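FAQ

Q: What does a record look like?
A: Structure on top, sequence underneath. For example:
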């Protein structure tokens, strides 16, 4: 038995304001894996600066850092940033969970400095939003 799937809360940033709804969260979240939950605050509208979805992902596959989607169907792709809550140790080079860059065995061809190809970084890992005290 392999344990290669786990659920993460993913924050999807830079979503067009007209698309800040649970239905769009389901669509965008499903581009990363199997959507388990959408945090819409109980209203159906995502009232934060991002859409928050809980998605089961295959940890053997590279993590995604962006989504490019024509959500408004106007011919213009929107580029949305993905940030993962409570992301464990992971490699910014191979985009895989389970090791860090210094232990990475992946050979990545780069024309620039050693860190030039590191389009992933600590910015991908965020903490969970604080729930308001009632």
């Amino acid at each position: 038995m392999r344990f290669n799937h786990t659920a993460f809360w993913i924050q999807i940033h830079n979503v067009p304001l007209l698309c800040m709804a649970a239905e769009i969260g389901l669509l965008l979240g499903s581009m990363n894996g199997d959507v388990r939950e959408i945090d819409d605050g109980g209203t159906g509208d995502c009232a934060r600066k991002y859409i928050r979805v809980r998605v089961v992902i295959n940890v053997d596959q590279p993590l995604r850092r962006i989504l490019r989607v024509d959500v408004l169907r106007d011919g213009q792709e929107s580029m949305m940033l993905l940030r993962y809550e409570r992301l464990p140790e992971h490699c910014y080079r191979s985009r895989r969970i389970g090791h860090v860059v210094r232990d990475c065995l992946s050979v990545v061809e780069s024309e620039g400095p050693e860190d030039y190809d590191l389009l992933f970084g600590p910015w991908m890992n965020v903490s969970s939003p604080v729930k308001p005290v009632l």
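Q: Is there anything notable about this one?
A: Helices lie at 22-29.
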